[in-house]
């Protein structure tokens, strides 16, 4: 599933092209993406006509389109969703939604149909329970704000990091990368960590995210930017996907894969201490 760097990559690509453009037509080829939309898909095509795209923002792992006339589109790519811009993508066989703009067509492709799209006014979108539960952004929040999100929390550190209500945007890949680089076992109890360890998690997460964004994110299988290109950060992952390979810290261990929080998790049993 696309995480913070991948979604940020998509948002930056969309902003360069679509800010200030108008929506000429919306074609919904599969209504299932709008199952949680406050406004009925049958009415959206008429309502969205000629609305200007004022802004496009990332909210955790979600993308928010701000339209003229107090209208918003909130999307979640889920596992295989992708926004693709331009006619060269019109033959993609997994296109589910088409937004025709004054700059050209924007396609929403989704192999597994897990992506979600919601359309509505400010109250329906920005004050919805789903939107209000999005935690602070790790690239924006300061350390004190970051630390406060974990006060009085209990449980395994990886599970707490993955909970989007705490901090938004961290998913399975980056949780493993962050914990490896700070030397903390993913099953460590969060209540056993000290302030200095939280500072390390905070600093390392920013460093990893910024590097991944610069490289267009991580493409394991399906992630693509709006041009259809894959991200290159996977080449720099130090632990994720490296089961059985030598630890890059030059210790005597090999990387272990274990199911934690229902996800494939990768770590070094020597370099990552369990607290």
Task: List the defining traits of the structure above.
10 strands; four-stranded antiparallel β-sheet; 275 residues; single chain; alpha+beta; globular
Walk me through what this model shows.
The chain has a four-stranded antiparallel β-sheet. Strands 2-3-4-8 form a four-stranded antiparallel β-sheet. Strands 9-10 form a two-stranded antiparallel sheet. The protein is globular and about 60 Å long. The protein starts with a helix and ends in an 8-residue tail after the last strand. With 275 residues, the chain is of the alpha+beta class. 27% of the residues lie in helices and 21% in strands.
Helix and strand topology:
Blueprint lengths: L3 H15 L4 E6 L12 H8 L4 E7 L2 E6 L3 E6 L4 E5 L9 E7 L2 E7 L5 E5 L1 H4 L3 H4 L10 H6 L8 H6 L9 H11 L12 H20 L41 E5 L2 E5 L8
Antiparallel strand pairs: 1-6, 2-3, 3-4, 4-8, 5-7, 6-7, 9-10
Helix pairs in contact: 1-8, 7-8
